[in-house]
Amino acid sequence: MTAALAAGRREMDWVGVFLLGCVTALGGGSVRDMLLNHYPLSWVANPHYLLVTGGAALATIAVARVMHHLRRLFLFLDAVGLVVFTVIGCNVASGLGLPLIVVIASGMITGCVGGVLRDVLCNEVPLLFRAELYATVSVVTGLLYVAGPMAGLPHPLAMGIAMAVGLALRLLALRFGWSMPKFVYSQDLH
Length: 190
Known about the structure:
The longest helix has 25 residues, at 71-95. The protein has helices at 2-9, 14-35, 42-45, 48-63, 71-95, 100-121, 135-150, 155-176. It is an all-alpha fold and 190 residues long. The protein has eight helices and no strands. Helix 6 packs antiparallel against helix 7. Helix content is 71%, strand content 0%.
């Protein structure tokens, strides 16, 4: 849906909406899998993912006029997607027996890179590179997810705690405008 709305702001045709929706939803997992040499890519193994993600983007066209009324639901669903995709990415890397830092980075890539690709394709500074708490939430979620079993928690409980804390952190950041410090450098070198 974020992709469809971004495509609409850029006045893309319906093919652009479909493609941008697919890139946004599946891009993080695809980049993760290529970096980890994990094949086939999820959408290649499950081609219906293209229809679901592209179809959701196209369906957004029908409800775009009322999206401002659904803003809170939209932000909530985006936050849910962030923590769920983060855990999925951590799971993939963990299943490959990779080091913990790679597991957490894989979670962040899965949760965040689709949005980066969307923003780059729309010629915008990616949300990930702005001060908003987004990548930080993904990292916290990943850390909690891998730390849980190390602390003796059963996998489902660790997953639930990680997603609940990550979701709460993202929603609180949205509600209270929490952000990371910005680096500002404006001195000319010439």
